[in-house]
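Fill in residues.
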């Protein structure tokens, strides 16, 4: 733009702003408007989310939701059961026993309990055996209460006898045979079967089932404490639903 003014002495020329200066000014104004819009939008969004957060704060659902976002996963019954499967072989309790048993046998007078002299034979049996009692995972029930941070574990009142074995290689036999009353082939095995039954009864009386339960509790507590130390393990009749 160019304007000229004349007077008697001289001509005065006045020029307007150049094209580049005008474009630059327009850009500055445009950025200023965009900035104002962004600030207003951010303030509105923050206010809305704050209101929502205030409304949900303090509720149990909000606590669980926040923990889920933080940890990335909520502990479930199946998760705990999968972790216990890894230690299933440790859920047995072993009781070892050893001893010596003597078998004395004589031929008796028919229809009486009178032994015939000179027909006695003896067998001395030295043995070592092991009784194993434990729990099957399918009989153990897990319930996780996420709100209370508790893991309920219900186990059978009586464990299962997994094994009661006297290995053949641990048995030593000393025989005093008698030609008038030969030792029978299965006589040692019959006595060993009696020994195993007697030893199991003794172990039960001595509290092997209670010891097995205590052993199981300790293993579960130690295992879950390493993986979920913010949860409490509770051994009881678990509720059907989380309270």
């Amino acid at each position: 733009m160019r304007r000229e003014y004349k007077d008697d002495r001289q001509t005065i020329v006045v020029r307007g702003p150049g094209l580049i200066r005008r474009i630059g000014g327009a850009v500055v104004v445009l950025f200023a408007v965009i900035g104002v819009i962004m600030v207003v939008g951010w303030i509105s969004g923050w206010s809305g989310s704050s209101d929502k957060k205030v409304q949900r704060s303090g509720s149990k659902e909000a606590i669980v939701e926040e923990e889920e976002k933080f940890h990335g996963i909520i502990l479930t019954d199946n998760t705990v059961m999968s972790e216990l499967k890894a230690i299933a072989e440790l859920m047995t309790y072993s009781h070892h026993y050893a001893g010596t048993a003597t078998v004395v046998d004589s031929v008796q007078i028919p229809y009486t309990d009178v032994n015939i002299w000179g027909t006695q034979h003896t067998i001395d049996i030295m043995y070592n055996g092991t009784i194993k009692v434990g729990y099957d995972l399918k009989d153990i029930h897990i319930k996780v209460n996420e709100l209370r941070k508790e893991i309920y574990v219900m186990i059978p009142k009586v464990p299962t006898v997994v094994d009661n074995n006297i290995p053949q290689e641990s048995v030593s036999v000393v025989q005093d045979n008698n030609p008038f009353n030969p030792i029978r082939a299965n006589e040692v095995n019959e006595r060993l079967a009696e020994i195993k039954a007697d030893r199991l009864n003794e172990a039960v009386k001595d509290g092997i089932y209670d010891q097995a339960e205590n052993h199981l509790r300790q293993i579960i507590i130690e295992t879950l404490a390493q993986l979920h130390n913010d949860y409490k393990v509770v051994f009881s009749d678990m509720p059907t639903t989380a309270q």
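The chain has two domains: 13-57, 73-235.
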